[in-house]
Structure formats: C-alpha cells, structure tokens
Amino acid sequence: MKIIANKIQIEVEDTGPGLNAQGQQRPAVLLIMGLGMQLIAWPPGLVQGLVDAGYRVIRHDNRDIGLSQHFDAAGSPNLIWAILKYRLRCAVKSPYSVADMAMDALGVLDALNIKQAHIVGVSMGGMISQRVALAAPDRVLSLTSIMSSSGARGLPEARPEVLRAMMSRPASTSLEDIGDFYVNLIRVIGSPVFRVPEAEVRERIKVSTQRSYHPVGTLRQMLAIVADTTRAGELHRVTRPTLVMHGRADPLVPFACGEDTAKRIPNSKFVAIDGMAHDLPPGVVERLLPPMLAHFRASTTGV
Fold it and tell me: Is 2.60.40.1120 the CATH number for 2-158+216-301?
C-alpha cells in the first residue's frame, strides 16, 4: 500500500495489528532494507519467524527504489568523482541523505500510528536504522544493525572483485541479462556456506525486476552513503538497546565494520555469524532470528 511519509510516497507492507499469545497488542518491528533492495528482499522465513513470535512486521521500499517515490529529477550521480572527493576529505553533496531516509522510516511509523518499534536494518538499512535511533530515541524500542557499518574513515573496504561486480552493468535491460548480472553479484557477495540454488536466485531476481527496476536510484542511494560522513562520531549518543550482527565472511562490508559499530554504541551487544557473508539465505536467517528475538524480549522486559 502507498502512504505519505515525510511528505513523499512510500510503499509499505504491514502484517497488521493484533493480539499476541498473551492477549497484548503485537509489538511492531520495522525492517529497513539495504542499498537498491526492495521490501520483497526480506526473506519470508525471517518475516514469518517474527510474526510467529508475536510481532507486527512492517517493511517498506526506501525512497528512490521499488514502488516508493523516485528522485529522477536529481539526475544520475558521478560516483567516481564523489568517492574521490570523499577520499580528499571534501564535502560530498547528495540529493538526499541517509538522515532523510531515516525520517522516511519514522514517517512510516507515523502514518501507521505506531508510537514505538523495534528497528532492524541490514547493510544501508543498518545505517538508516542508526540514524533513526539518533534522531528519535523515544520511538525506538531497540536497534538491530546487521551487516552494516558506522561509516568511519579507515575501516576495511570491499574486496576488489566485489567493487568490480558492483560497478559493472547488465549487458542489456532484458530479464536474462539482468538475471546474469545479479547472479554474478550474489555469487561474489553471498554466503559461501549457505549457497542458494541458482534457479531460485534467478526466480527472485525476475520477480524483483518485474516489480521495479530502477538502477539509477541505487546510484543516488550510494551517493547518500558516501555523503554521510559524521555518523560514526555520533553513535556514542545512541541510548537504545542495540544488537549488532555481522558475518565473518562478508566481502562487501568487512567484519571489522560490524565490530567498529558495536564499539561505538554504548552497551551494545555484538554477535558474529560464522559462514555469513552479505546476504540472507535460509541458513543465515536461522542464525539471526534467535539473538534478534532474545534482544527484543530483553529490550522490553529489562532482562
């Protein structure tokens, strides 16, 4: 469904309010997806696991991707120039910021009349989630940052083969060529211990592409990440219970980035996942859900 959040159109899916097994209103969990990924990228097993545990689950397409509002009037950014400016410690300008995307997320909660929620983000979504916790701690029951980063300078960068895969392009806009591109990308960044059959990957890519294919939006989101240079120095102000989870095999956002995030957020808990890289296959979901659910319970009971 379309809602107006932070004065723009945002596509949302909501499992809906209701009572849990204890007869209480289901606590809300807001899931924030990563760079260029649509809300349908959240694994059904993770969503259902949260629902089965008694939670109301809300997902949305971040701005400039999926069925949410696009910002094509801003044009296509020159990422190479932006990265060079970042390395030279010059200001990088972007059409919108990670903080703006955090306000979109809060706007989703406003539109659904949800006062507080557990905020969960993966990759760029973790960065947005960190910004949500900084901007509106009273709205956050807990923060969970997965396969993400503080954005601090000096952290390890993605492996060269990952950067090459990300900066390349499909041979054409045909479903087959788009599928080939993303199959290769997932091969490079995916969890080596928890491989998903290629036919299943291709089917997911087909569904996603048919729903929306907007690569220039991904570039503008990437520019927003590059421009978000102050977040690392602000994370000491996060006061909400925080769980940071990261895969030891992550080639895109290296393991040290997760460790750094946890060190910067006071009293946070860090969970390392063996064999996990930069994706969410079923085997990874099985390992993420138990610490997430324990974190949610502890955040609301104080145990």
Answer: no
